[in-house]
User: What shape does this take?
Amino acid sequence: MTVFDSDIDSVLITQEQIQEKIRALGAEITSDYEGRDLLLVGVLKGAFVLMADLSRHIHLPLEFDFMAVSSYGAATQTSGVVRILKDLDHEIAGRDVLIVEDIVDSGLTLNYLLKNLRTRKPATLEVCALMQKPEAQEVPLDIKYPGFEIPSVFVVGYGLDYAERYRNLPYVGTLRAEVYSDAAS
Ligand code: IMP
Ligand code: MG
Assistant: This one.
């Protein structure tokens, strides 16, 4: 039990399902990049939980970097506008780079990031995304390491927030309608 459980309407992905998926993704990444040095790029803030868990299932010499981009703020609708709030600390030219993203909704954020990072000439550039909302996706994206497909609903937990809360839930779920109406009043 967590203190937030009473705010949750339904659990879409359980803690066990997430951990099992991450173990499988980690094993796949480990074998695909064998003998190479991989740079994981996490997209803040949502990806920090996935980054921590996934990286411990990747048995390779890893380096870590993070980017922060503007997304929803406190609302639940995408703006389509992407702004870099924090850029990478390191050069990625010639590096094997794997972007770690919590969720792909419209895909606009990731699309922008991929274009931006490609101009810096990494040796390889791939994506691991824990969740995708296929019905909401507006741009085609090649996600080499996909986790779960979910319906086009707003979810929280496992790094994802509503008004900066719920990121520490170990599972992914939807919020009860009262949570939104309480926040608006
Ligand atoms: P996109 O640009 O529409 O693909 O949005 C991507 C970003 O929006 C994600 O990295 C999340 O930070 C945020 N986001 C998208 N869907 C959700 C959701 O259901 N809950 C919380 N955040 C979300
Ligand atoms: Mg995000």
Notes: Residues 17 and 171 are 9 Å apart (CA to CA). The mean pLDDT is 92. The longest strand covers residues 96-104. The chain has four helices and eight strands.
